[in-house]
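Justification of resources, computational component.

The compute hours requested in this renewal are based largely on the per-chain cost of generating structure records like the one below. Each record pairs the submitted sequence with a full structure-token output. That output is archived, and it is also reused by downstream analysis tasks.
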Amino acid sequence: HVQLVESGGESVQAGGSLRLSCVASGATQDIGCMGWFRQVPGLEREGIGSIDSTGDTGYVDSVKGRFTISKDNAGLYLQMNSLKPEDTAMYYCAATSAPRCTMAADSFRNWGQGTQVTVS
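The structure output for this chain reads:
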């Protein structure tokens, strides 16, 4: 019912920056909270941060001060600065109808296909 497509992942040097985008289509009027997650093969998917229906954002401690989530009519964005090798992962955007965010992965029912970020 909601389709999400991420883009912008690349291989970058440590200290560099990337901006990821997520375009939503389908029943976008039902979207409340949107979030960004990342996953390394063999490990659990980690919530990075979120933006709720009012525009309020929240972030996990490991990315605070480096990553910024924003949205506009065109999509959802993740600005990543001061990238570190440990940021290497597949990055996913997700959406839920809940207007407020809990960042529980189980609360998100719509997921993108992921975009790979590699920092070396």
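The two ends are 37 Å apart (CA to CA). The mean pLDDT is 95.
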